[in-house]
Amino acid sequence: MTTHLALLRPSLPRLAAGGSLLLAVLLGAAVVLGTFGAGVVDPRATGWMLAGPMGPDPVQYWLGWTYFVSAPWSWPLGLNPDYGMEIGSSIFYADAIPLLALSFKALRGVIDVPQYWGLWLLGCGVLQAVFAWRLLGLATSDPLARAAGAGLFALQPMLLNRMGGHLALSGQWTLLAALWLCLSEGRGARRAGAWVLLGVVTSLIHAYLLAMVLGLWVADLVARARPGWSRILSAELVAVPLIAGCGLWLAGFFALHSGMDAPGYGSLGLDLLAPFDATEWGSLLPGLPGARHGESGGSYLGLGGLLLLAAAGLAWTRRAGPILGTFVRVRWPLLVMLLAMLGFAMTHRPSLGGLQITLFDPPGWALGLAGALRASERFFWPLGYAALLGAVALVVRVWGGRRAGLLLVVLLAVQAVDLRPALQRVHGLVAGAPREVPDRLSGPFWARAGEVYDRVRAVPAGNQGTDWASIASFAIRHDLPTDAVYLARIDSGGVASLRARVATALRSGRFESGTLYILRDAASVALAANALDPERDLLTEIDGLHVLAPDWLRILSRTGSALAIP
Hints:
It is built from 21 helices and eight strands. With 566 residues, the protein is mostly helical. Among the domains are: 152-256 and 263-431, no CATH class; 444-559, no CATH class. Strands 3-6-8-7 form a four-stranded mixed sheet, sandwiched between helices. Strands 1-2 form a two-stranded antiparallel sheet. Strand 4 (462-463), helix 18 and strand 5 (484-485) form a beta-alpha-beta unit. Helix 4 runs parallel beside helix 18 (468-477) and helix 9 (173-183) runs antiparallel to helix 10 (189-203). InterPro entries: DUF6311 (IPR046278), DUF6311_C (IPR058671). The chain crosses the membrane at residues 21-41, 117-136, 166-183, 195-218, 238-256, 297-316, 328-346, 379-399.
């Protein structure tokens, strides 16, 4: 009996670690399923994306994917020309997660996937917990501390705020993976290969995440180069950006030749009170004044996270000098990079409690470059996660892993209570959504028009113009290309050129053959009314849209259709 116990004893830590990892996985999945419900995971359920409560972004993703999967393969693979036509680009700019879009398109004919974002959210919740568990393993081997801490990393407004709309940015597990690579041991080819893999995977998810991951890679490269440069580091220096660039190219990132320098850097920055501001996500703390813009609210750490930082502060007072000194001496490149990202997040116009000042005026070229990543508050995420990790490490160092585990269980419960009303609000966005949303433009006219026309134009052309979703949904259901789009970035010069060309056609009455026009402003309606042939063309209002149907009357006469003219 004693012999059997002796044999079993070395495997007990492995069993404990396996159980801890399983608990972390379950906690990560529970955060997503508890927030959104299991129904979103069903690939056939599209109503929660298209019903509208989560905003226009999910509709954009579904349209971009549906056009992409129906189109023939192109080169590079991510091109998506029918979604936008002259102003179209690629699946990358539809924010449809090229990593999954390319994979599921390759499987078309084998499996039908109307939507994969529910699976993506679930996967992100699980991977967030898994990589948090790995990260926390650098600070403690205590199973409870690692599992409860992973749950706290998964139950973060930084993550949940993006899950409520901008779904590709739910892939914040890539940041945890990058932090783990920065802080773990190892220098050789395996470490370089891990960075290459993480870089290309992130390049197929989202550009913001890629910028953060590459920044952390640079910090790690500098740290590993300090003892001396090597051939492996030289190869890695070339391979990581090269392979990540190939991923971007494959996804269609370079299909957009202009329009990346979107204005707005400085207006979507981090307020210094944002990590403590419970206005949008917390229920146990009072809201604080702060910047109110499209990114605000997503940097709150939650009461559980803030109490963890407070506990770490208390621990720091006991052993601050040696711990901090060792970290700065060994990990200074990472610290410098995290602070640089914090500075980028704050921008040249930092704010405190909503009071904003302009420190300096960057040159126009610098603002243009920064405009590619203008929603800069997001660059707080790596520092936010690193701060939580550092807090766990301090608490473990001072009070031990077992006590830290019990503390993290309590803090996880506090976090859940603090965020519960906000989570219920997000749940309400999808709970009552129908399984499918009927097409708004589905009457007899639209059915016939979908058969006889080759494309649909929204006039004037533009990004996320009036009724873009209804027009594009009608077009894709009839396999028609359209320029009614919503894209993350768009070529403004191409839009201006297309508008001028279409306006000339309307003014002259030389309408594009096989084209159905949806006129979105009074000027376009007036141009068409003055130039159309009333014996041939139809200009009318149907379902609240002004429709110009060239040759409509001739088509009906030629086919002998009994369809009533609206």
